[in-house]
Amino acid sequence: MKSYKRTDRLAELIREEVAELLISGSIKDLNVSFVTITRVKVSADLSYADVYFSVLDGSWDYTKKQLESNRVVIQSLMGRDLRIKRLPKLRFHEDRSLEHVERIEKLLKEIHGEGEGGKDTQ
């Protein structure tokens, strides 16, 4: 059985809590949609939590600005719900890995399509 580090457990708790806060609409001034919290990485000293998000509608800058401007509210709501001694400071980052995956898939389809178009079908 694998033992999990405290930072990993806390990261998962924070990911779930931030996602729930975004879904529930608990933050009145936050106006974002189609946001997914993809992962959270907590620093070894538990002082920072890097929260990675993805958006479906391409509004990266707007979403990041909204999350950053509501960071204090998100942290205070999390502190109330999680009841941990020291809550890490949240830092938001774009997770554009889905865009990279889609681009690679598109390129592979193009390569595969070119290969099939050149085959002899006799």
CATH fold category name: GMP Synthetase, Chain A, domain 3
Order of helices and strands: HEEHHEH
Low-confidence stretches: none
Number of strands: 3
Question: Order of strands across the widest beta sheet?
Answer: 1-2-3
What's the Cα radius of gyration?
20 Å
Helix content: 40-55%
Looking at CATH, the homologous superfamily is K homology (KH) domain
- Give the domain tally: 1
Structural class: alpha+beta
Mean of all residue-level pLDDT scores: 85
Biggest sheet features: 3 strands, mixed
Strand content: 15-25%
Q: What's the number of helices?
A: 4
Please state the second-level CATH architecture.
2-Layer Sandwich
CATH class group: Alpha Beta
Global outline: globular
Quaternary structure classification? single chain
Distance between the termini: 57 Å
Describe this protein with a few key phrases.
alpha+beta; 51% helix; 122 residues; 18% strand; three-stranded mixed β-sheet; globular; GMP Synthetase, Chain A, domain 3
Structure, briefly:
Helix content is 51%, strand content 18%.
List the helices and strands and how they pair.
Blueprint: H1 6-24, E1 35-42, E2 48-55, H2 60-69, H3 71-82, E3 89-94, H4 97-117
Parallel strand pairs: 2-3
Antiparallel strand pairs: 1-2
Helix pairs in contact: 1-3
